[in-house]
From TrEMBL:
GO biological process: isoprenoid biosynthetic process
GO molecular function: metal ion binding; terpene synthase activity
InterPro entries linked: Isoprenoid_synthase_dom_sf, Terpene_cyclase-like_2
Coiled coil (residue ranges): none
Organism: Lentinula guzmanii
Protein name in UniProt: Terpene synthase
Membership in a protein family: Belongs to the terpene synthase family.
Keyword list, A-Z: Lyase, Magnesium, Metal-binding
């Protein structure tokens, strides 16, 4: 008899609905044509096409109000993330560090000659960035580079953990994930066409909303990805960490993570209401940013079930029933530890 667990419905009352950008088809065709070109072929065709399709799908959900030009930037970035994440997962820390350095050099000097070892990957990055700079304000570009550097640094730290078989505690894990998730550079696109004073982005309200949104994405991702990750023995997941740290079974751990997510969601909505009531001249910009964060949280959930990232062809069924068949681990007899 197969073993099952139930995913909590963490966004049943979330006020941001599923929305798709109307420019998806046009921008998606451009990205698909670009990734099929000879210059971009460094993954097997099927794998690369899948990464490209995922980038199109996620960007269209995450940035539904973007113009055509802005959405193209967002799709290109999602493809950059897909390439880096897929490749770095199979690298040791030293290799990831070399690649991270090459990425930052490319962002700072996109037209400079590239190291032949990273030429294809950097070609994708420089193509993205040259287009992005035509559509981003100077403050958005500055923020993006800073956030992307934090992202690459954290991905390198994750690789070090993987090499050393390090298992972090809850707080240490969340601290790392606030950067290696890639949410911060993705969020820097929300106001990409506006020059925003640094002090506004560094205000307590904006920082807290961003932090809550990132933690919500982390918790959701880890609940959705738990089944795949446990099947291959990957403990870099908040559910696995809490099971080990608190001596809980999968059902109890999911309830624990769901409660953490609910508390963050409640606080996020309270902060959003604070902006709504504010007479601050910057409140409209802050509300646009907050709406972007809120929509990202919904988009992430939709993408997780609608793509094949975590549930293969069964995503929509799982979304409806919330039931997941526990995948076996090779050579390990699994149970749900129902005491």
């Amino acid at each position: 008899m197969s073993l099952q667990f139930r995913l909590p419905d963490i966004l049943s009352s979330w006020p941001w609905p599923r929305t798709v950008n109307p420019h998806t088809e046009q921008c998606g065709k451009r990205l698909m044509l670009q990734q099929k070109s000879q210059q971009y072929k460094f993954f097997p065709s099927k794998v690369q096409a899948g990464l490209c399709q995922a980038a199109i799908q996620l960007a269209s959900l995450a940035y539904p109000k973007f113009s055509k030009a802005q959405l193209q930037v967002a799709m290109d970035l999602m493809f950059v993330f897909a390439v880096f994440d897929d490749s770095s997962d199979h690298m040791n820390a030293e290799s990831v560090q070399i690649w991270a350095n090459a990425i930052m050099d490319t962002l700072r000097s996109p037209l400079a000659p590239r190291d032949s070892k990273n030429e294809l990957q950097m070609l994708i990055l420089s193509s993205f960035w040259l287009n992005a700079t035509q559509n981003m304000s100077s403050s958005a570009q500055k923020q993006f580079i800073e956030e992307f550097e934090s992202y690459t640094r954290s991905v390198t730290e994750q690789a070090k953990d993987r090499d050393g078989l390090v298992v972090r505690g809850v707080e240490s894990y969340l601290e790392l994930r606030r950067n290696d998730l890639g949410a911060k550079p993705a969020f820097s696109l929300i106001l990409m066409d506006k020059d925003i004073p640094e002090e506004l982005f560094e205000s307590d309200l904006m920082l807290l909303m961003k932090s809550h949104a990132i933690d919500m994405l982390t918790l959701a991702n880890d609940m959705f990805s738990y089944n795949i990750e446990q099947s291959r023995g990957d403990s870099h997941n908040i559910v696995s960490i809490i099971m080990a740290q608190e001596d809980l079974n999968i059902h109890q751990a999911l309830d624990h993570v769901s409660k953490m997510h609910d508390d963050l969601a409640t606080e996020f909505l309270q902060l959003y209401e604070t902006i709504d009531r504010s007479a601050n001249p910057s409140s409209e910009v802050m509300k646009q940013y907050a709406d972007g964060l809120g929509n990202w949280i919904r988009a992430n959930e939709c993408f997780s079930f609608e793509s094949r990232r975590y549930f293969d062809k069964d995503g929509l069924t799982v979304k409806q029933t919330r039931l997941v068949e526990l995948l076996p681990r090779v050579g390990v007899k699994e149970d749900l530890r129902d005491e």
